[in-house]
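Incident log, structure service

09:12 report received: a user says their structure output differs between two submissions of the same chain.
09:20 pulled the input from the user's history:
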Amino acid sequence: MHMMKKVIGVGFPLLLLPWLSACGSDAYLVPPQARNAPKEILMDQQAVEQRMQSIQFNLTRAITTEESAVVQDPTYAEGYSRLAQLFWQDHEPQAALIEAQKACQLQPSNVTYWNNLGQLALSTHHLRTASTAFHEALSHDPTNWTAYVGLGQAAIAQHQPNLAQVDATKALEFGGPQGPVFDLDGQVNQLKGNWNNAATFYRDAIAANPNWWQGYYDLAVVEVHWGEVSLAEQNLRQALSDNPGSSSAWLLLQSLPQTNKS
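09:34 re-ran on a clean worker, output below:
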């Protein structure tokens, strides 16, 4: 995601919880399935893995620091919010979810915390918790477009494209032409099998936020569906230049030579 600062609650104009896209339990660097990938791709993956491993020590120290802060002040909501981010980056999604819930309990009117919890729950497939969190955000700010995007994503995850379309319309009404809004529209159309429309919306997402990885990745999925392997590779590499820790992008990229042969 456009390498926005991976700080919880920061950067929402471009996407919810930016750190979710680059880290977490589903972002295994050099995934086992990719061990037999072409040499060039595997070397790229290993380089990323080495960079990520080099920051592990600092991540562990940061967790310890934040844990000390909330022990000293158990009402420090921002500390729990930061812990949620750090645990997610440390591939501990359930711990991240618990800390995000604590932040919401301490500051129940904080829309950002509810959106963060919603995205965490969505990314860990706790769809009921996600929907509840986004509805809580909207109860405090009925015009919060990011919450509508989150609700739409939850609807997509439950294969409810019509409901997701309603949420996307609301997100556009309150947020304007934002990349995540267009991307949600693309997902709605893709779920319905309208691949041409989906591609158009993904291109719109890229145009709105050209440094955001998600639009490139989703467009690449469409291009693979169409058999346009070269274009898919270009877009996947663009996505990975922004979000080098994306397991899904690495796996799709390493599958392209095989796709090309089929």
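09:41 both user submissions now match this output. Likely a transient worker issue. Closing.
09:42 reviewer note: The chain has one domain: 19-253. Residues 1-16, 21-35 have pLDDT under 50 and may be disordered.
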